[in-house]
Amino acid sequence: MAISQRQIQNQLQTLSPQQIQMIKLLELPTLQLEQRIKQEIEENIVLEENNRSEEDEESLSVEDYIREDDTPSYKSRINNFSKDDKQRPVNITEGRSMQEYLVEQLSFRNLSEQELAVAEFLVGSIDEDGYLRRDLESISDDVVFSLGIETSTEELERLLGIVHQLEPAGIGARNLQECLLLQMNQRRADSPAKRLAKKILTSYFDEFTKKHYEKLISRLGVSEDEFRDAIDEIKRLSPKPANLYSDGAQDASPYIIPDFHIDYHDGQFDLSLNSYNIPELKINRHYVDMIRDMVTPKGTVDEKNREAVQFVKSKIDSAKWFISAIKQRHDTLMRTMQEILNFQQEYFKDGDKSRLRPMILKDIADRTGLDVSTISRVVNSKYAQTHFGIILLKSLFSEAMQTESGEIVSSYEIKNILQSCIDEEDKRHPLTDETLMNILNAKGYCIARRTVAKYREMLDIPVARLRKQI
User: Fold this and answer.
1) Distance between CA 426 and CA 151 in Å, rounded?
2) With contact defined as beta carbons under 8 Å apart, do 80 and 280 qualify?
3) What is the torsional sign of CA 37, 38, 44, 47?
4) What is the pLDDT of residues 16-68, one digit of tens each?
5) Long-range contacts made by residues 456-459, C-beta under 8 angstroms, separation at least 24?
6) CB within 10 Å: which end of the chain, N or C, has fewer?
7) pLDDT exceeds 60 at position 119
8) CA 73: distance to chain centroid?
């Protein structure tokens, strides 16, 4: 076959580095944006925070010094608060981790150096819920490769028993039953209810998890009141032992920083973007002056300084793109949030979810002229602070449902009815999905049983069998 060349013309759509940077910034919530800006300041030597007031800010342009370059002054301050307001830093402290706390407790045990090393390895294998989910044979192999220590599963079992004695109670359990029993064993069995609870967890755990209460009462030969007291004791135990650990660093707990502020006064909405901790950016004048000194009166650069000038100019271009992306992010977020506010005005007046209109991403995309993927990035992990509380933007989007009368309602209305029915049900005989479907159909909502199950799962409500109580 002869080798030949030919030209092919294709039309491709690609994203520029600036567009990729903009997309990444767009999906960041306020706290992560602040961290991203500080990271960019550390990586780009010409970018810095502007702590001066706007009146004292001079126009800064590399064009004044290099004629062929076009780098105007860039500024990204968002005036959502007065110059007199004091910026409040977001303090995040990190306390002692659970593993460090467990290792500290191990140091007080009478263990040899080798035993302590293996026990610490076991502690390091505990997951964030407080469970040891790996089998001891695999851990034994890892100990040999990582620590060079030969150990048996029997030895690991013995050391794991020591770990089980540590605080918080239940730590290092391999399954839920063992976790609950470890917690129960660390409590004094000073009442019939506690002794019965331990017996249920030891001998009838499967029946207990499946809520076969009538069968358990019959097998145990106890009254309903005695059985109910035992169940109450079990409910006091934690299925996730790591949640029982507190390092005392309250600031380390995650908390929500709203991305938008929505105020409602005298029938008018006031929307603003939360930029309280977002630093104002500018280009460091020192590097611009440095370039000016390297440029000759003829507007050229000496050979020895050319590499330095190119480096600084590339950093200035990068700073220009970054500040421009921050400004574009602000415009896109405000534009999108304004349309959401216009679409859901009745809801934002008092926070009544029954007033939420059916709304999907495409509705806002059509109103803003932006792509659906852009709207998705804007609302993802973003919160708005209102006069009735902080809301997740994504929670405002819901499907449209049609009633028998032809009226279009939000799926939130159906979820509220489901929640109300389940809250008011007889816990001895909880409502099944089919019964809930019949209730909704009687109210005029044409909905299938599988849709009821979907909405019930979205509300984190278990099936009827698991909602049953004595």
Assistant:
1) 55
2) no
3) positive
4) 666 777 788 888 888 888 888 888 888 888 888 876 544 444 444 444 434 43
5) 456/418, 456/422, 458/415, 459/415, 459/418, 459/419
6) N
7) yes
8) 36
Rounded Cα–Cα distance for residues 146 and 140 (Å): 10
User: 384: alpha, beta or left, given left = phi > 0 and alpha = psi -120 to 50?
Assistant: beta
Cα angle value 170/176/182 (rounded, 5°):
30
State the pTM of this model: 0.57
SS3 label, residue 391: strand
CB atoms within 10 A of CB 171: 26
Helices (H) then strands (E): counts for the chain: 20, 8
Q: How far is CA 365 from the centre of its chain?
A: 24
Look at residues 341, 351, 199, 215 and name the one whose alpha carbon lies nearest to residue 273. Answer: 341
Extents of the domains making up the chain: 17-80+280-314, 400-467
Give 273's strand partners. 260
In angstroms, rounded to a whole number, what is the distance separating the alpha carbons of residues 99 and 123?
A: 6
Q: What confidence tens digit (pLDDT) does each residue in 94-105 have?
A: 567 888 899 999
| Whether 159 contacts 115, CB under 8 Å | yes
The pLDDT mean for the chain works out to 81
- The fold of the 400-467 domain, in CATH, is Arc Repressor Mutant, subunit A (1.10.10)
Residue 192 preceded by cis peptide, ω within 30:
no
pLDDT band at 80 (very low <50, low <70, confident <90, very high): very low
The CA distance from 118 to 301, in Å, is 64
The answer to whether residues 22 and 329 touch, using CB atoms and an 8 Å cutoff, is yes
Hey, is 376 helix, strand or coil?
A: helix
CA distance 212 to 190: 26
C-alpha distances (whole Å) from 217 to each of 75, 208, 223 are: 72, 11, 7
User: Residue for token digits 């290792």?
Assistant: 103
43 in the Ramachandran plot: left (φ > 0), alpha (ψ -120 to 50) or beta? alpha
The three-point CA angle 366-370-373 to 5° equals 105
